[in-house]
């Protein structure tokens, strides 16, 4: 019964079981179910529950990251099939993300990328030590709405300000929502440099991105 | 006379120590370590290690590691600027140094962190020079008012001008090594003199898990050849960049450190090496690296015990706090760490003054922490017999209500047996109120001002001063700075 499958997929995501999540996704594809419904009633509620558990202080980083991986594993099976079919994948938005030039720290950034993806965004993760121009070039190339910048060092975080300057210089500032994060960043920092927002962790990052996307 | 017992902390039994070392050695043999430095790979290859050049990976056989352990000195002696005063870094000798490479200063007036500038570095060095229980300086602050390319040598240069204590420092760039070594050699009067009487320790951190970068491997090679002790700072974050279990992190810690030790020995057999670290119990909520977590301190004490079993000098980042202000958290984390580190016999304990995940320094905290170190040294001195018999003689002619205050015995022993209160508040309540309800932080702030006002720089030979300035100016120019900030001596 499809209700059982939706429940099982939800539970696999909440349990962070990526093997099971991929298995169930394959079963869903194999039995010809409406994949948009599988996503809406299976994986998405699963990851929403994970976000709740995080906010309640029940789930911590290890749970968050494995659940995001489980979601990714299921979507890796479902996305290509959805793309081939007539049904369009509704995305919450398109985001380009990376750790800023000069900085190789990426644990937090990887988590945000996974959670954004799990939250329905199309995510282009450029990795770490990403030259400023690459963020802009990629965002232009994929038609992104969001540029997400991570920095862990006070010495590299100034590049977040530089990127915003570059966008202005090229007359592109209004095209993108720029979000910043990383240990030295803060809401005040985001304001100072003219970014569109700051998020302290992956769960609030997704909330912020969705809120900004909603405002168009 | 019964000799005072030095109190000691050991968290592992011998079998566990051996097991951890064994797995560390197996890890080095099976998985090896990534080293992004061609010269290091060449040296290791020449010594029989199994090298994969494309992957930049070295697998070290047990016999190679054991040979290198055998050639590493069990202790290193540092000397002060004059070369007269010696500090043994080995056995269970404990030396505190302020936590190094902070980027911000906690401003007492505003209670906010601000970027450190040369002025702060000068005050820092002056204050630490006067703090009796910090045996070593560290190049504790990075000045934001000099070009980043010159900042590693610059903080050492300023320190050598103002202080006589030995330094814990390190390079930020490969090019920084030569001017820093030249500054030290100038003080000693030559490279060979510097080798004979080390004045500074150079820290180098592998990148967890299991990697030595180009810069840090180069620091090991250059320091080894110059006879400058390398302090290896493994810094796994449990469950993030090292195994989540303490035992698992210890295995990685041993592997990373021993690989660094081998690089030093193949570059220059007999090179002085200090087994050190700054690991942490990664916070699974905040994604931060708490130095104040008790598990962090346990990892430190345990790897120190392991290093001692391997006959090596030890170091750890302990005696510091993650708090952002001088509050109870700052006090309790620092004190716990300082005591545990000292009981574990860690030879170089880096931490005093430090806040906010090793990123901030506080002058007030330095003073408070010096008081913690004073207590620690008293603890390490233990309980001595002092008298024969212990007390019976004092009770001859006992009468009820006898008091000891006026006894010559009390006058003779009280200062030797009990240290002064320092800044700790010992007032009765009403007196404390009448004195203005001051906290230890308020008192520390006054003490900072007093000490810095009274500071007279230990005299530096004029010719040497000029030579140091010339070495520093040349390097700064090569990094694009035509002028250095004034030292405001």
Give the averaged pLDDT of chain A, no decimals. Answer: 90
Helix-strand makeup class of chain A: alpha/beta
Give the number of helices of chain B. 16
The gyration radius over C-alpha positions of chain B equals 24 Å
CATH class of chain B: Alpha Beta
Largest sheet features of chain A: 5 strands, parallel
Kindly provide the name of the CATH class of the largest domain in chain A: Alpha Beta
Spans of chain B of at least 5 consecutive residues whose pLDDT stays below 50 are none
Which regions of chain A contain 5 or more consecutive residues with pLDDT less than 50? none
Task: Give the biggest sheet of chain B.
Answer: 5 strands, parallel
How far apart the termini of chain A lie comes to 38 Å
What is the CATH superfamily classification of the largest domain in chain A?
Cobalamin-binding domain
Most extensive interface, chain pair and sizes: A-B, 10 and 13 residues
Radius of gyration of chain A: 18 Å
What spatial form of chain A do the alpha-carbon principal axes imply?
globular
3D shape of chain B = globular
Helix content of chain B: 40-55%
Q: Indicate the CATH topology of chain B.
A: TIM Barrel
General description of the model:
The complex is a heterodimer of chains A (216) and B (489). Chain A is an alpha/beta fold. Chain A is 61% helix and 11% strand. Chain A contains nine helices and five strands, in the order H-H-H-H-E-H-E-H-E-H-E-H-E-H. A five-stranded parallel beta sheet of chain A has the order 2-1-3-4-5, sandwiched between helices. The termini of chain A are far apart. Chain B has 489 residues and is of the alpha/beta class. Chain B has one domain: Trimethylamine methyltransferase-like (TIM Barrel), CATH 3.20.20.480. In chain B, strands 9-10-11-13-14 form a five-stranded parallel beta sheet. In chain B, helix 5 runs parallel beside helix 6 and helix 6 runs antiparallel to helix 16. Chain B is globular and about 85 Å long. The mean pLDDT of chain B is 96.
